[in-house]
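Proteins fold reproducibly. Next comes an illustrative record:
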Amino acid sequence: MTTSTVAPESVAVASEPVVSIYLPVVEESSAPVVPSCPAAISGSTPGAPSRTSPLGVAGTTSADLQSFAQQFNAIRVANCLPPVPFGNIRYDSCMEDRLFWMAEDPSTDPMSAWGHIGSQRSDGVPSVGCDGNLAGGSGNTGADVAQKWWDSSSHRASLYKPTYTGSTAGVCILFAMTHGGVPNEPYSFTRAAARWVTC
């Protein structure tokens, strides 16, 4: 904001000398006002139970969930999106059931049962569990899959919802991850799923 002066106005006061008053003029700045981006938040997720499937596949750990939540919110804040409360980023057993179903496919091809509802297992066992955005591969952490979903435009639109303008207080992000699979996948091979829901 800048100020300048204009020529004085003359004010006549009865039988008094003329007094000159200088009035400042406030000029509007032509630069647009840029809204500030949301600040980062801290916190902890509610945790995960570290289940194990009937055939020994390891499930979501609290560390998986926290790693995902921290990166998910860091990405949101870095892109001027409001973070989701950490208490609203939650483990989901239904998506984990589907990841277990995939990981227990006896095929040596890790892609054998991979996919959304409707994918088939090599042994014909019917699909179970709930669908979500999927990511998988060797060495992935919760943070890694959060980044992979941001880097994919269709997953970004589904999971991060950058055009959403409501409050994130009523938003929940559900997450699950499995480690390893039968017959010979190592613990470091992970499958993950996540979805945006209303709490």
Observations:
- Residues 15 and 150 are 77 Å apart (CA to CA).
- Confidence is low (pLDDT under 50) at residues 1-14.
- The radius of gyration is 28 Å.
